[in-house]
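Figure 6 in text form: structure in, sequence out.
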């Protein structure tokens, strides 16, 4: 009996494996768990997220509006010096003299003459610029989200041409006419809408597209240079880590560098564009004739009139725009989910 009972007990308490029971793990699952634990963690942030063109349009518009309110006085001085032709004779002896005379004649508000027309144009201009650039760059970025510097040159060119045709040419023409009108003995424009109405009534819609060729050349080369330099510096800064955050101060430094490069690259085009959009534009047959007359009557130096004030304005302009744009995009990413 004891032997039989022992045999029966041993049959009940048989050998068992640790893998059995409700808390056990199957051998294959255990191996998979160990392999997963030993595998390296996924790359930080995964694949870089592309900026939706809608976000770029909104962020670009906000950045453009804030930037122009800060930098307009330098734009005013630059335009005044470019319109101050040598044959008049020139009224201004330099930047400081131009500012002093303007404040003396019209007060500090005189430095903001024409702001409304530029503000109305700056918001949609920046919106179109960044929206177009992000749309084009999203099509050509690598699988890691990196944009090649050379490709960014073409994307920037496309963005510049788009903003020139849709926004910049008509708005810049109106701005230059407003500033030029302020210099005349008897200004005839009482405000933005009155000025636009008078220009269209006297010259037709074509009157707002004077110097379109020079404007396309200026804006296209401007944005091509700026986005090329900006992308090159970003790629250098991030190196092999596309998720590396860019400090706003670093972005500002990169933006100022890109702005300086664009100034030295296309100031002659900017001078021709300004002359073609002034109140005396009718004395030029076309863009080439304008460039020829400037060269013949005033020499090569005239193509770089206003470079110093433009350099200061553009460096500040581009730095501010890129910083505000990127910070606004970061905020939008928190509340606006896109693919």
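Output sequence:
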């Amino acid at each position: 009996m004891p032997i039989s009972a022992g045999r029966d007990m041993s049959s009940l308490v048989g050998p068992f494996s640790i893998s059995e029971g409700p808390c056990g793990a199957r051998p294959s699952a255990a191996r998979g768990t160990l392999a997963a634990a030993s595998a390296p963690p996924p790359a930080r942030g995964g694949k870089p997220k592309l900026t939706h063109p809608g976000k770029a349009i909104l962020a670009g518009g906000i950045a453009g509006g804030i930037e122009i309110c800060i930098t307009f006085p330098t734009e005013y001085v630059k335009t005044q010096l470019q319109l101050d032709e040598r044959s008049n004779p020139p009224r201004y002896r330099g930047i400081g003299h131009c500012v002093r005379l303007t404040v003396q004649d019209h007060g500090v508000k005189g430095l903001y003459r024409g702001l409304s027309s530029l503000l109305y144009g700056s918001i949609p201009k920046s919106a179109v610029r960044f929206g177009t650039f992000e749309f084009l760059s999203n099509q050509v970025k690598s699988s890691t989200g990196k944009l090649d510097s050379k490709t960014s040159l073409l994307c920037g060119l496309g963005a510049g041409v788009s903003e020139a045709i849709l926004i910049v040419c008509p708005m810049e023409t109106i701005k230059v006419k407003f500033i030029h009108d302020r210099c005349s003995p008897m200004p005839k424009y009482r405000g933005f809408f009155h000025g636009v109405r008078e220009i269209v009534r006297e010259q037709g819609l074509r009157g707002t597209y004077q110097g379109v060729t020079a404007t396309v050349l200026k804006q296209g080369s401007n944005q091509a240079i700026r986005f090329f330099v900006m992308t090159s510096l970003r790629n250098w800064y991030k190196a092999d880590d596309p998720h590396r955050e860019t400090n706003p101060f670093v972005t500002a430094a990169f933006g100022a560098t890109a702005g300086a490069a664009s100034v030295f690259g296309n100031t002659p085009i900017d001078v021709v564009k300004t002359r073609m959009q002034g109140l005396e534009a009718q004395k030029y047959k076309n863009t080439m004739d304008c460039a020829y007359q400037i060269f013949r009557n005033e020499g090569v130096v005239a193509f770089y009139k206003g470079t110093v004030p433009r350099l200061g304005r553009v460096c500040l302009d581009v730095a501010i725009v890129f910083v505000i744009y990127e910070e606004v995009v970061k905020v939008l990413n928190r509340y606006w989910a896109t693919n």
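Caption detail: The radius of gyration is 31 Å.
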